[in-house]
Specification:
Shape: elongated
InterPro entries: MoaE_sf, Mopterin_biosynth_MoaE
Helix content: 25-40%
Protein name: Molybdopterin biosynthesis MoaE
Distance between the termini: 21 Å
Order of helices and strands: EEHEEEHEEEHEE
Radius of gyration: 16 Å
Pfam families: MoaE
Number of strands: 10
GO biological process, one term: Mo-molybdopterin cofactor biosynthetic process
Strand content: 35-45%
């Protein structure tokens, strides 16, 4: 069982960045609009979706759970760390919790910066750090298997 405050929605707004955990994500268009800034010439986005298979098993859905309060704190630190690498950007990081069907997005990241290389590098850094550090877990459900056989995995 997860601690109190787990698997609830939450959002943290920072100067030039927003981190959120929710049961539904904003549209890609609204996410891009949130980072848009006429000072910046590049916006990099990443959309992670549920694939239909893993290591030869047919995946039917994923279920995400999070220790939201701690995960948002971790995501905030990731933004701070990203700013230490490249200080001039705007970012939105959204991660879903709950059930995510095949083909549906589970994470959306948008980063705007003056130049494309910075946008791409910052977006990738944020993605890899969220997957590696944020207190978010997924459970994979497989076709033809009882739900009790679904597997909990780290979010990497």
């Amino acid at each position: 069982m997860l601690p109190p405050g787990s698997s609830v929605e939450g959002v943290v707004e920072l100067s030039g960045a927003v981190c959120s955990i929710s049961y539904a994500l904003d549209t890609v268009e609204s996410t891009i609009k949130r980072v848009s800034d006429d000072r910046f010439g590049a916006i990099a986005t990443f959309i992670g979706t549920t694939r239909n298979s893993f290591q030869g098993k047919a995946v039917t859905k994923l279920e995400y759970q999070a220790y939201t309060k701690l995960a948002l704190k971790t995501m905030t630190q990731i933004i701070v760390d990203a700013r230490n690498r490249s200080p001039d950007f705007r970012a939105v990081v959204q991660h879903r919790i709950g059930v995510v069907g095949v083909g549906e997005p589970s994470i959306v990241i948008a980063v705007a910066s003056p130049h494309r290389n910075e946008a791409f590098r910052t977006c990738e850094f944020i993605l890899e750090e969220v997957k590696r550090k944020a207190q978010i877990w997924k459970r994979e459900y497989y076709e033809g298997k009882d739900e009790s056989e679904a597997e909990w995995k780290s979010n990497v």
